[in-house]
Amino acid sequence: MLEFTGLNWLAILVATVAGFALGAVWYGPLFGDAWLSAIGKTADQIQPSPAPFVISFFTALITAVVLALFINALDISTLGGGVMIGLLVGIGFIATAMASDAAFGDTGLNLWLIQSGYRVLYSVVMGAILAAWR
Questions:
Q1: What distances in angstroms separate CA 24 from CA 18, 38, 82, 87, 132, one per listed residue?
Q2: Residue (of 8, 45, 22) closest to 114 by Cα position
């Protein structure tokens, strides 16, 4: 049974912010140009709007809550355990689902590597935070 009452909501918030902040670095200085190239746009063509950021924050929050539920259900309380569950979720659920989407959407390997790489890493970071603060 999933227990929402036993979750560390501060850790969930910190993990969410960490995952969101990682996105700023990932899609900025690290892979911003490569990402723009992979989607076939320039920085000038990207219209600044709060909607994608709000959606991204809430999807990160949902990911953190689900990871926290897994971590609690599996009784993981070490940094290494958190990293491992984050890696398993990131690769086993997120990257694989994104690979199927990329294949059917014909969006290319580079875009899949950039986007799924971010999601795998943010799952690892979130898992580490959530398990360490459990």
A1: 10, 17, 23, 20, 24
A2: 22
Distance CA 38, CA 32 (A): 10
User: How far is residue 91's CA from residue 64's CA, in Å, rounded to a whole number?
Assistant: 16
pLDDT tens digits, one per residue of 13-51: 999 999 999 999 999 999 999 999 999 999 999 888 999
CA distances from 1 to 8, 75, 121, 133 (A): 17, 13, 28, 21
Contact 67, 86 (CB under 8 A): yes
The C-alpha atoms of residue 134 and residue 127 are separated, in whole angstroms, by 10
pLDDT tens readout for residues 80-106: 999 999 999 999 999 999 999 999 999
What's the rounded Cα separation, in Å, for the pair 47 and 51? 11
Intra-chain end-to-end CA distance of the chain, in Å: 18
Q: How far is CA 20 from CA 2, 6, 15, 103, 119, in A?
A: 25, 24, 8, 26, 10
